[in-house]
Amino acid sequence: MNKFEAVQTLYWKDNTLYLLDQRLLPHTVRYRSCSSCSDVACAIYEMAVRGAPAIGITAAYGMALAALEGESKGLEKEDLCAFLKKCADYLYRSRPTAVNLGWALKRMDHWLEQHQDASAREISEGLKKEADIICSEDVKNNYRIGAFGTELVPQAASVLTHCNAGALATGGYGTALGVIRAAAEQGKRLHVYIDETRPVLQGARLTTFEMCREKIPATLITDNCAGFLMSRGEIDLVVVGADRIAGNGDTANKIGTYSLAVLANYHNIPLYIAAPLSTIDLSIQSGKDIIIEERDRSEVTHINDHAIAPENIEVFNPAFDITPAGLISAIITENGIANEPNHKKINNLFNV
């Protein structure tokens, strides 16, 4: 039996948002303070905070900070609303693929629409409370995802995961790691294989950090080792998170997920996506409509500021890839599981 000890990804104190700077993990635990919308947008873009749910929560608090900025400037109602819209647009552009970012900003905008007669003080207080609710709901949803997902985990299993979809990527507990945590808490005998997840090494730095804290047996592997382990029968299932899921179940997740899905399919190993409903974008029909973020070449050519490639080499660095629904065994959400996902099954998740 493993007891989950929360990793505090973010917290609010004295009108300031503090974010655990995940670029420094696992060796340094340091919080980055954000006192403005601009600070939050930079933290999201620079991946001081990452993971689709955590990005959405952070953006919500970014809007609360924006309201405080507007209030401190003495902006009248019309000017304040214009300022908040500008801040929301700025935050939205910080990372384009993770749908939770836009989802959270729309929810904050909906709050504003429902409180058009609010004063500047009431707006700043109300947006902060709404961000708190978004964060607490995410944690509750993660526990529900874990409870549903553990039904798919055998009593004894080797689980492969990619990137980090744990407490660090959410408001707490995690999505893919939430499934693993729930299974461990039930006493199931697990061994977790963790892909390093190049180029930013979220698996090597972050998922290992979480598993070691909770003493869940785990082994770090290189990204190109997964197929070898599958061929030897050493992987029973793959569980990963998601940054955006299309209406048909096609899923955008950290680059390398599609390769794992192809390998798992070849070896008859189930691959599960664990994500909250806020990660599902019903406005898009398939993965072809998902914008894939491309990031700076230095993430590939350098590790910890040390060059590992020639300076003049061309670099292609997409942050995500698309796994077709046909390669996904099930999508696990807080409302239940969609086995062999398609449009109908995805829609049914919202009607529970």
Unreliable spans: none
Q: What is the average per-residue confidence, as pLDDT, rounded to a whole number?
A: 95
CATH superfamily of the largest domain: Translation initiation factor eif-2b, domain 2
The end-to-end distance, rounded to whole angstroms, is 31 Å
Computed CA radius of gyration, to the nearest angstrom = 20 Å
What class do helices, strands and sheet pairing give? alpha/beta
In terms of DSSP E residues, the strand content is 15-25%
- Proportion of helical residues: 40-55%
Characterization of the model:
By secondary structure, the chain is of the alpha/beta class. It has two domains: 10-143, translation initiation factor eif-2b, domain 1 (Four Helix Bundle (Hemerythrin (Met), subunit A), Up-down Bundle); 146-349, Rossmann fold, CATH 3.40.50. It has eleven helices and 16 strands. The strands form four sheets. The protein has a seven-stranded mixed beta sheet, with helices on both faces. The mean pLDDT is 95.
